[in-house]
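Before surveying the methods themselves, let us examine one representative protein, pairing a chain with its fold in token form.
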Amino acid sequence: MKKTIAFLFSILFGQLAFTQSLTRDERKEALEFIDWTTKELKKSLKGLSAAQLNFHPAEDAWSPLECLYHIAYSEKALRATLDAALQAPADPATKARLTTTDLQIKNNIMDRSSKFKTAAPFEPLNTGFKSFEEAWTVFEERREALAELIKNSDLDFRNHIVTRAFGKMDAYQFVIFIAGHSNRHTQQIEEAKGIAGYPKR
């Protein structure tokens, strides 16, 4: 009987050792990054005319409006991936093997020196959005929901794993990835605004 009780306690405390909510510093860092990337996108798009929103820097390059469509669609799709990871069983063994830091996740997703072709559903024309207002509303709603999740959730973000084509990261790092993804395309919008031929108004 004593051995059975000891075994059960070992399981319980073993699980507790792997289960932890986000620290105050982790919440603060994520919320500040979410807020900053949101404000940067808003600032980049503020006051743009229809001509400016629809300007294509090159034949195969996205316009600022198309960048927004992609960002807004991605916020929904990536959040679904995050939720699925948080609902799946924790995987501390995989977490222990991860070597990429939070800062590397942040820097890598915002680094536009490497370009990647997005999957077909994420192409702006496939997102289903028909207007700036529609896409922006979805983006703001998803951003607010993401911030609320970080503020209030006691889930163990660090031991739930997200698997993407380019590798694995923990769920907290994926939140950083989502926020950084919007900034990657905010930079793309700013690049378009600096191209010769960009409408003055």
